[in-house]
Amino acid sequence: MEKRFNLGDVVVMIADGPKMAVEGYVLEEDGKGGYTESDEFVSVVYYTNDGFKRDTFHEDLLISIDELDDVSQQ
C-alpha cells in the first residue's frame, strides 16, 4: 500500500521531531519540461523557537498523528 499524506495532515518525525503540517509532495522535473509530485519527499511546515520553518523530509521519516494515536492505544 502506497503511503500518501494529504495537505494539512499533522505529522511527526519518527526521530522525536516536532508536530508538522503537510504542505504537499515535492515537485520533481519529469524530463519533459514539466513537473510531477515526488513519490517520496514531503514538504512540511512546523514551528520552532525561531518561528515557522519549512523543510522537506522523506515520507518514511514521518508518521501521521492519527497513526501515532492508534499505536499508543494498543
Structure description:
- A hairpin with a 5-residue loop joins strand 2 and strand 3.
- This protein has a five-stranded antiparallel sheet with strand order 4-3-2-1-5.
- It has one domain.
- The chain has one helix and five strands, in the order E-E-E-E-E-H.
- Helices cover 11% and strands 54% of the residues.
- The chain has one helix at 65-72; strands spanning 10-13, 19-29, 35-48, 51-58, 62-64.
- The model has no long low-confidence stretch (mean pLDDT 86).
- The chain is mainly beta.
- It is globular.
- What is the H/E order? EEEEEH
The proportion of residues in beta strands is over 45%
Major sheet characteristics: 5 strands, antiparallel
Helix fraction, binned, reads: 10-25%
Uncertain spans:
none
* CA radius of gyration: 14 Å
Which features would summarize this protein structure in a list?
five-stranded antiparallel β-sheet, 5 strands, single chain
The gist of it:
The protein is 11% helix and 54% strand. With 74 residues, the protein is mostly beta strands.
Compile the SSE list and pairings:
Blueprint: E1 10-13, E2 19-29, E3 35-48, E4 51-58, E5 62-64, H1 65-72
